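Researcher: Let's try something more involved. This one mixes different molecule types, so please make sure each is placed in the same coordinate frame as the others.
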Amino acid sequence: MNILVCISHVPDTTSKINFTENNTVFDSGGVQFVINPNDEFGLTRAIWLKEKQGAQVHVVHVGTSKSDPTLRKCLAIGADKAYRIDTPAVDGSSVAKELAAFVKTNSYDLIIAGRESIDYNGGMVPGMLAALLDIPFVPNCVGLEVDGTTAVAEREIDGGREKLKGSLPMVIGGQKGLVEETDLRIPNMRGIMQARQKPFEVVPAQQVEAISEDMKFEKPAPKAEVKLVPADDLDQLIELLHKEANVL
Amino acid sequence: MSVLIIAESENNALKRNAAEVASYGVALAAKLNTSCAAINFHAANAAELGQYGISKVTHSTNVQKSFDANAYANAIAAYAPKNNVTHIIVSSSADAKFLAPLLAAKLNAGYAPNVVALPEELSPLTVKRTAFTNKAFVHTQLLATCNIIGVGNNAFGVIENAVDCTVEEVDAENVTSNLEQVSIEKVAGKATIADADVVVSGGRGLKGPENWHLIEDLAEVLNAATACSKPVSDMGWRSHDEHVGQTGKPVSTNLYIAIGISGAIQHLAGVNSSKVKVVINNDPEAPFFKAADYGVVGDAFEVVPELTKKLKAFKALG
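Model: All components are placed in one shared frame. Result:
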């Protein structure tokens, strides 16, 4: 089985978010970049499938050489080969088209991406990729079993879960639940050394035109000071929620 | 040019979020000086969209009853170009976020999810949406001929504007499916994090899963959904579909009550777009107090039962 995991390179979840150049550019100064957490759950599941059922696990990323350390980390925790499609990621649509062109020239049984990236939260790349390839797609995936040429994937819905079955190849939008946090792997020295020997290919981009553009960023307005209510006067809290906040 | 809203349904009835999506679509159509129609599969009460200003619903029942994203996307992708649709409005539900990217790729449409207001410019179409998991907003231009706007939960609100509504029965075209439903589990009769007006959330401060009746009792009085912080779900006290935060579910509800949650940056990011936040914590230094609107410094084991009791009395007064 050939598995492709699509990787985003995002600011670490603890990052303070700031912008420069008159709020048009994300300020990456002092920010640590990591594998997008949703992608890492998917990659870990792919490595698990490789160990249990046998598979080749490739990772692919659309971006510049700034993301190379993130891809090296994917190799260090168990991916067999990394590809970087060499163009800055502009919007979900152009990234999905770049990935679709890549997948068409390389055959995969299973394509795993994250539910969404934690930076732009678009959640559009995996679905768009599946539609462009005209293959099944399961988002918000919290369970995945592969059996021969079919897969059963479970997706989280509002207030429950739905199990869906389809034939391979299939695209999965992974998230926590596909594996647990405790299953995530930390690269060890052996993995890091091995990663240096593993193939890492830079692929020229198709130069697809974007159909959306992020123009300007804005931080939320500073919050007014919290109103503290004494623990022995909860009537006051109810009064405030009812009359002032108007939410009861 | 015209606006189309996708009105979701469940169990043959419109979902609650259809009212907000309709209100947004009608308001956008007024700005564009054009009309706004709806498309719906299976709701027996589709004509009720007239309450929110929708005068025409295209209604199809020749698709699978349970939500089928690919079939629905195929049907809408066949419908939209024939009806000169330039703006498609969807919600932020799990189903909408499943459908919209498929539809966007099929139509080569621009798509912006988590949009918080009407477009600030109509040409080029520019919308404000949340990014960095609610730590910021971004103003995005959508440059395709047809563009999809995903309205954030509770971001726009519902505007009543009753008009006569015609429901036109049409067989949807091209409704091929590529997935088969094996099973669906859904908690019946309980508010979900996605559509509840109030969410009551518990953290490590509750000391163990056996104390969750405090959260559940308060939630019941408020008809609220229950949620939890990441450590609680990681320790297995609660199932992880209750985990809210950056790697869990986002919450944008009217009232979010956090009990025994210190307020790690990832948690705050996930709940930030809720309108009113109340925190109950015995540590006055907990970072959540900086992000909350109202706070009670006190022991959850005393404050929460007391609050539940008082709210019950308040609700009984009507």
